[in-house]
Amino acid sequence: MLKMFRGRDRRSQGGVSHNDVQIFKHLEEADVDTLVDELAVLTDDAADGNVDLDKINAYLDALDEKDPIPFGVSAEDSLAKFHARHDLLTNELSKSHQKAIEIKANRY
What we know:
mainly alpha
């Protein structure tokens, strides 16, 4: 997304506004830490109902350009590691859930 806005101000052609150009220029010039902090604010605002998906996507694109996720990262491997780390908690919660179901079933 950032690439398509670089150096373009096409308001007269129905393109991006001057404000959008400034935002994208800022995204190009900001460092990764600044972008992460600002993205956190945007996501907090989104949780309050003030969602600007285009702006959030622009931040994500900028971060991907400046600090891409290294190749070799596998969602499946990450999920397996998560389950391995939290398996005890998951099992305990499942046992508690099963006990609660049994108690409710015995009441009726």
